[in-house]
Write a structure and sequence with these properties.
single chain, adenyl-nucleotide exchange factor activity, coiled coil, 3 domains, GrpE, Nucleotide Exchange Factor Grpe, Chain A, domain 2, disordered N terminus, about 220 residues, 3-stranded mixed β-sheet, alpha+beta
Length: about 220
Amino acid sequence: MAKEKESETKKSTFPDEKHVQDKDTAAQIHAHVAAGRDKKTNATESVEDQVLDETKADLDELLKGSGDTKLQQENKELKDKLAQTEDKYLRAEAEIRNMSARQQKEINSMLKYDGQKLAKSILPVADNLERALAAEVKAGGLDQLHKGVEMTQQHLIHSLEENHITEIKAAGEKFDPTKHQAVSTVPADNDHPAETVVQVLQKGYMLQDRVLRPAMVVVAQ
């Protein structure tokens, strides 16, 4: 009876060899499974990292390519605008040169043929004077000759006025040194106050606002 109790005590205190072996085997299996799981997890994470790296590289390459394309497009547009601007500049420069050449040509022509209108307008005056000199003066024909010369003078004055050449007013006017040339003086009186033109010895003329020839006058002092 004591032996049986001792045997039961041993059984309850120390597990049998088979039970111990089973526990060791289970622990080994558990460890193996855990190691496999960790290995699988590491492998999965490694694959994911690789995929992410490749995706990132592809995106970088794509962005880089997109950027290059955009830069190339902008560069092309800038070159086109530059070419257009340069073409407009060259056209404008050529037009300015042509305008300058035409203007210079017109100026040279005006200088060369300056006074052409006046010359044409007074040619009839020269013709009339030539006819008057060629005419034979008969008795009683002086009045007719005088009238012809008077008409010629009127024609001449009209021709001058058509070309903006006008007579300078002098007689009775206040002396103006810019338009009058005093060749002599006389004492002032009631009819001729000081610094007024008493007599015109030779008429003066102006072209527009420019004095062609000052009037030669006698001035009261």
